[in-house]
């Protein structure tokens, strides 16, 4: 009884950003200080250096840093000229940003179901969704697979469907940057990729940030133009409709320091996830890695029988263990998106009633993990 009271008094962080800050604090303070001294707060040299290093890390020819992962997605749709009458295919089980950018350009999001084991896009559902879009008079243009919770999507299945239907493949790796599919890092798959550097992401800055990746040389100047108000030869010539989506120099400086330790942090996350799986597999449905896929474990998400999730969350809260639910409502049931088309999406609907995420980060030591596991097992006994 005494230990239970003590544990409730010392809550565990869901994502321990402070632990990484303690490790990198002096380095980041120097990097930020250098930007403050230079006063080059927009388009400073750190941005170009970061783009070069991000592209090398991902195995892509080009990286274009930007203000957020959402902007990264929008920049690509704008650069490709996606417009009214076009269909863009998005998973129903994802964060809203994946689909949010589609109506921005006047196009129609068409929702696709996911696989029950990996939570990533189901290629068979994509095939059916293309037929749904065509039946509604839409022109299929782009598919946005999501590397959900950190695991690379099944690109062996998705890419052939996209090719058969003439779809551009925009990989949303906001949660999966650093993961791989068949040895290829996310960011180097499909026609282009978008990622986020939101602070809670495996590679996160101290505010909003993102990046686009592509091997398409012709796309690069268009992306840079879109990022800066559609500028042409200079900032006061506007050759297309654009946006203001630059990454601040300070955020680039922070990300350079974090990228330097990112490989080690990925390995640490993978060790935490493997241990969770071993210790929880007999009491919950634990995450599954597809053959050929790796994950950076942006989230560690288990499934429970319907009706058990809220009781588990309350019990863990009493033990000082935070949880989160990603996501309670599938995209096609969200009020803002309910009018958009989609095939039957039973897996997405089931997952929204069953998933719950446990604390996950690169600094989760075994003693803290044991405390989390013990609380989960106690609650589910």
Describe this protein's structure.
Helix content is about 40%, strand content about 15%. The protein is of the alpha/beta class and about 375 residues long. The chain has 13 helices and eleven strands. The protein folds into two domains: about 130 residues, Alpha-Beta Complex (Aspartate Aminotransferase, domain 1); about 240 residues, Aspartate Aminotransferase, domain 2, CATH 3.40.640.10.
Class by SSE composition: alpha/beta
How would you characterize the largest beta sheet? Answer: 7 strands, mixed
Our count of domains comes out at 2
CATH 2nd-level architecture of the largest domain: 3-Layer(aba) Sandwich
Q: Tell me the Rg in angstroms.
A: 21 Å
Query: Could you name the CATH topology of the largest domain?
Result: Aspartate Aminotransferase, domain 2
Spans with pLDDT under 50 lasting ≥5 residues?
1-7
General shape: globular
Spatial strand order of the main sheet: 1-9-8-5-4-2-3
What's the CATH class label of the largest domain?
A: Alpha Beta
Number of DSSP helical runs? 13
- CATH superfamily label of the largest domain: Type I PLP-dependent aspartate aminotransferase-like (Major domain)
Query: How do the SSEs run, as a string of H and E?
Result: HHHEHEHEHEHEEEEEHHHEHHEH
Mean pLDDT: 96
Distance between the amino and carboxyl termini: 17 Å
What's the β-strand tally?
11
How large a portion of the residues is in β-strands, by DSSP E? 5-15%
State the helical fraction: 40-55%
């Amino acid at each position: 009884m005494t230990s239970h009271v003590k544990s409730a008094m010392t809550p565990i962080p869901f994502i321990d950003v402070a632990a990484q800050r303690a490790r990198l604090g002096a380095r980041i303070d120097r990097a930020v200080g250098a930007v403050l001294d230079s006063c080059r707060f927009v388009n400073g040299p750190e941005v170009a250096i970061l783009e070069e290093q991000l592209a090398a890390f991902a195995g892509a020819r080009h990286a274009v840093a930007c203000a957020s992962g959402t902007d990264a997605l929008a920049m690509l749709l704008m650069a490709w000229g996606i417009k009214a009458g076009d269909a863009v295919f998005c998973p129903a089980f994802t964060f809203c940003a994946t689909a949010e950018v589609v109506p921005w350009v006047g196009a129609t999001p068409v929702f696709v179901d996911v696989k029950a084991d990996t939570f990533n896009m189901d290629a068979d559902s994509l095939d059916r969704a293309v037929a749904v879009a065509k039946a509604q008079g839409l022109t299929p243009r782009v598919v946005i697979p999501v590397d959900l919770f950190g695991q690379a999507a099944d690109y062996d299945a998705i890419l052939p469907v996209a090719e058969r239907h003439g779809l551009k493949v925009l990989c949303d790796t906001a949660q999966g940057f650093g993961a791989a599919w068949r040895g290829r890092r996310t960011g180097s798959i499909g026609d282009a990729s978008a990622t986020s550097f939101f602070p809670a992401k495996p590679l996160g800055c101290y505010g909003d940030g993102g990046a686009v990746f592509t091997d398409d040389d012709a796309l690069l100047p268009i992306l840079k133009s879109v990022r800066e108000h559609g500028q042409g030869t200079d900032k006061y010539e506007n050759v297309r409709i654009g946006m203001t989506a630059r990454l601040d120099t300070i955020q680039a400086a922070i990300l350079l320091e974090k990228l330097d330790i990112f490989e080690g942090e990925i390995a640490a996350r993978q060790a935490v996830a493997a241990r969770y799986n071993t210790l929880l597999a007999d009491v919950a449905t634990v995450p599954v890695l597809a053959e050929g896929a790796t994950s950076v474990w942006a989230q560690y998400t288990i499934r429970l029988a319907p009706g058990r999730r809220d009781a588990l969350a309350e019990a863990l809260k009493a033990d000082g263990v935070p949880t989160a639910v990603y996501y309670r409502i599938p995209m096609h049931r969200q009020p803002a998106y309910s009018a958009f088309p989609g095939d039957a999406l039973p897996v997405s609907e089931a997952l929204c009633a069953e998933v719950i995420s446990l604390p996950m980060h690169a600094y989760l030591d075994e003693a803290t993990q044991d405390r989390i596991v013990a609380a989960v097992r106690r609650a589910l006994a």
